[in-house]
Amino acid sequence: MAGFNPTPKQKQVITDQGKDILVSASAGSGKTAVLVRRVIQLLKTHPDLNIDQFLLVTFTKEAAKNMRDRIRSSLLAENNATLRKQLSRLPLANISTIHAFCEQVIKQYYYVIGLDPKYRLLTDDTEENLLRDQVWNDLQEEYLAKNGEFKRLKEAFQDPKSNVGEGLADVVIRLDEIANAQAHPNDWLKQLMVAYQVRPGALMESPFFQAYVLKAIFQELDQLRHALADLIDTIPNDPGFERALIAVQADSDQVEAIADQLEQGNWDAAVELVQNPKFKTWGTKGLDEADKALADDLKAQRDALKDQFKASLPKYLLASEAVMEKRIQIAATYLEQLVAVTQEFRQRYQGVKQAQHLLDFNDLEHYTYQILTTDSTEGRQAQGQLRHHYREIMVDEYQDTNGIQDELVKQLHDPKFNHLFMVGDVKQSIYRFRQADPTLFLDRYREYSGPATDNEAIVLAENFRSMESVTSFVNLVFTQLMDENLGEMAYDDDAQLKYAAKRYEAADEPRPATEMLLYNATEKDEVPDPAVEHYVERQVNDADAGEVWLIGMRIRQMLDRQELIYDQKTDQMRPIQPQDIAILARTKTLNNQIVEQFARLEIPVVVHDVKNYFKAIEVQTVLALLKIIDNPAQDIPLVTVLRSPMYGFTERELAFIRIHHRHDDFYAALIKVKGMLVETEQKTKLQAEWKAWEMEAPTEVGPKPTDFTTFAGKVITFLKQLGHFQQVAEQQALADLIWQIYQTTDYLDYVAAMPGGSQRQANLHAFYQRANEYEQGNFRGLYQFINFIERLQRRNDDLAQAPVEVVGDAVNVMTIHGSKGLQFPVVFLVNSSHQFNHQNQSAPIIVNPHDEMIGLRFSEPYQGDPVIRYRFDLPQREVVLQSLTKQERAEEMRLLYVALTRAEQRLIITAGIKQDPEKLITNWKAAANDPKLVLGTNVRLKAHSMLDWLGMTLCRTGLLSPAQFNSDEAWPTLPGLKTKAKLQFKIYTANQVEAELNALKAVRSDQALTTKKTSLSREERNFINQTMTMVYPYETATRTTAYQSVSAVKEVFANQDPDEAKMGHVTFNQQVAKEEGRYLRGEFGQPDFISAGPTTPSPTLVGTATHLVFQQLDLTKGEVTKGMVTTLIKHLVTSGLIESAQIAENVNVDGIVNFYQTELGQQILANPTAVEREKPFSMLLNGHNLFTNLHPEDGELLIHGIIDGYLTTPDGIIIFDYKTDELKSKGIQGIKDRYQGQVHLYADALHQMTGRPILKQYLYLVRIGELVEV
């Protein structure tokens, strides 16, 4: 860590010891460097301390790796033999995420809680969601069958936008997720009911109403009281304002009357005053022009207070005490049932995971907590060992921990043996949606900053990252925006960034201004310039696309004009390069447009997280095709596929199909068209109609269609391929079907040529991989897969991001969340006008985990009518909603802070606006008139976006003026506010953006013309020609599988020469060999739902169980009896290896026993150690022998399978294979014909594996107890 010169505060963090320490480290304050130096300093100070006695917990795997690498580099740089020895112990050090640490504890101390140490970590969200859905569906089905109250609960939380019950499923899963973040989930769930415990006739005396509802009401009344008093003081004592003064005084009296009634315990009287308020008419008379303007302003203030009265108080004072008690009782009943169902769901989900030996990330935390709190001999020993071992417990990003994680740290901490060191920044806590609780950090900070503590809180405020222009701008915004009431902490002197990046001093003059660039999409009358290339669509609702063109314009300006930034490596100024630029956004809304539009502007770009994976057009198209493969009678997905690049039907062609078959669904119409095409007379008639249609069709249907032959070819091709896909869907895995779609339609190659092609291909590859993982999780079927995807879409969930290879010189596009911990020379904060999230206002439940409160919104039958239902809210919900709204706005503020502080040198803020600029600043005006440094809470809450907050703070500094928004008003400047921040502000229209883009393009064209051209050599020309005309010699191999199962290819080996078979040599029947592709089962038994009765297990399940019994039988006893077989079957059922008793009952016990009565069976019992059972194998065969179109030089194919059993004798090998098939019309010979090829392959494989001859090959027919030689 050469050249590191710590500040006094940093030195304090590095050297202070013997106490618990909390470090509040602002953005760019060098916290990672300081943390590493503290580790080195502790090792220096305590020679007996080893690096593996530190527990260093970080937020991500990448951060842990970075921390470990930095510590390694620091140790290598130390000229100290003792420290250098720590390098050998560094791999043992616990520098990891909290989950990695928990997994280590579980693996070491699993026995403390009786946990099976053999488990698989459930890391895939898709598999976890499927498992949850499976558990919920089973629970729901069972409860509906026996519990009438459950049906009522479902209906109460029914989501009107989806199927019955999904609303309740989402509620339960949401509660489960929040409960998992608590140390005691079930206790936390029970605590939610406290707010709904009200004694009859004692509504206002209940603890919840006293602590929360009445407090909230009186806060609202106090705000109104003070605001009305201020308004009364502002109204002139003049006859012209007398009626106005009377009206406002009456408003004030009304507020006082409500407060009086509540203080006297008269709830109903207060409700009457709130629900039926009396507002006197505002009036003035005899005013001059100046007084009229004042009167208008005063009336506007009074109207705003009336609106505040109507919007706030009725949400608490909803109804009479009797009605409220009745509603709360109904809610309490629902909540009690909801908690019980959630607990049952949790228990069942846990049981399913245990049965399948699965652990998820929540389990890691909770099992570790159980280990650390179990009061047993083993538990206390484990706890003591851990507390003694870890001498320093260091937690990075402490602001992002949740309740259970904080409890884990507390359980490890023992002041007698170790100390806590926690570092973080509440201003950068942006993971509340993952149950992070920033109040944990704030509570510790207040505790450690207080006088009655031996511990210590240290603030690192120096910013070593950004130019002073950036730090000044951030401070200017947040000194007005963030306080404890809305922001959860004060942005005071300790919180403000202190400019310390002195390396910029030479480059910081003149100081670059922060830029705010808005795209105005409301210029409807602006006429496009016909002389320039057009980029921007003139649509009011296309502000997003316009903003992206604006961003691209600004980046092209930077690149084409070679604007300069400071290069830290060379200590010189240099032109900006694409990789210097990061585009950050609150959401992923603009990602697809950025990829497409930047390609046209020749700006290289890397998108680090795609927007709504399922909504990517290429994935939607494949999903639509899957839907019609499952059920083609779906018009919307069918037309989506036909219109897509896969098949390229034009609008006119689709209209032609529809207009000639108006009353069918579109698939039926398509089938009828195909039917006409294959009959000569009908085809002639259809062709005549086509010509007439081509002449008469209105132009608004689209451009004229292609010729009839092309149209006919599209119809035939589509239906042929659809039929093929449907066959593949029936016979192969889902992932194979998707890959067949990619290959048959060339869609994967097509999207590669589109803008953002590499990302689109990555999306399709990820979709294929997810389908494969779906089936590997024991979930099957196209229909179920489609339903699963649709459920995720309804929940606004997504598949994991589809990562794409990061190119070197490209603009980085990411979310603000994704940018945390990173920094860039140039940062664009885009889409700043994106509206804040208001989902809580309509959600069926809202939860404040920290205060253990829940707000319900449910429906009840109206006057007993089960069809007509009504919804109502309760004060409990309003209390939770108000607290959550403040918490969410605080999170949005912190997101804004994180985005702004990623910038090292330049900061550009953009937005697309869909309203007139003068209307945009309506909310900003109230901020401009606010006399206090920190804007009023209500003013900040009225903001709809980050842009509003920025506008509110900048309009009172002089950096923004009304004139820039076409307004002639005047905004007062906040007195005493000093800043070094500068702002460059401009609103662009479509014509201005296009004019600049065309000018920049002309400059690039001129530069290209002046670039010296280099001619190609003969060798280079020959190489290009060979590359472009090359024909791949193994084309057939690309259409042929690389592996096959034995059961699929057995027919090719059905007839063998006995002498050749004895030596393990197989011959191939070229008459049944395929040309290319893949072998599939050619014969299918009856479906389970036909062949098996409602309670009869399928033959497949019975066959699998029979093989398992054969495999598990103890052959060392010298005999096999019915009792032995029956006992084994019972054991296999009990242990879960045979799924059910029904399957076990259908296992042919006599058939199994009879096998060991045969001569071969007796040989096996006499030589049990010479027997191998269920032996897997794989072998290579030349592909030409299996597929006639392949050449011998095309290579080998992998054949794999499992041999039921074989006996090794001194003379050679005897193979046996069990068959539970039902004998059909061809009898035993039919079985032999069907399976002899499979057994011959076994013989060849065993001969290759062992080198021994094959003596005999048998099929044992379990149903008839007969051994058949093949």
Briefly, what is this?
This protein is α/β, with parallel strands linked by helices. The protein is built from 50 helices and 29 strands.
Please describe the structure with a list of short key phrases separated by commas or semicolons.
1270 residues, alpha/beta, Rossmann fold, 7-stranded parallel beta sheet, 6-stranded parallel beta sheet
List the helices and strands and how they pair.
Blueprint: H1 8-15, E1 21-25, H2 31-45, E2 54-58, H3 61-77, H4 81-85, E3 94-97, H5 98-109, E4 120-121, H6 125-146, H7 148-156, H8 166-180, H9 185-191, H10 207-234, H11 242-263, H12 267-275, H13 289-312, H14 321-355, E5 358-359, H15 361-373, H16 377-389, E6 392-395, H17 403-412, E7 419-424, H18 438-449, E8 456-460, E9 462-463, H19 468-481, E10 498-499, E11 514-520, H20 543-560, E12 564-567, E13 572-575, E14 581-585, H21 591-600, E15 605-607, H22 617-630, H23 635-643, H24 651-660, H25 666-677, H26 680-696, H27 708-731, H28 734-745, H29 747-752, H30 757-776, H31 782-794, E16 811-815, H32 816-819, E17 824-830, E18 845-848, E19 853-856, E20 858-862, E21 865-872, H33 875-900, E22 903-913, H34 917-920, H35 922-928, H36 937-941, H37 946-954, E23 983-988, H38 990-1009, H39 1018-1029, H40 1035-1038, E24 1043-1045, H41 1046-1049, H42 1058-1062, H43 1088-1091, H44 1099-1112, H45 1122-1134, H46 1141-1145, H47 1149-1155, H48 1159-1166, E25 1171-1182, H49 1183-1186, E26 1196-1208, E27 1213-1219, H50 1227-1250, E28 1254-1261, E29 1266-1269
Parallel strand pairs: 1-7, 1-8, 2-3, 2-6, 4-5, 6-7, 9-10, 11-22, 11-23, 14-16, 14-17, 15-16, 17-22, 24-26, 27-28
Antiparallel strand pairs: 12-13, 18-19, 20-21, 25-26, 26-27, 28-29
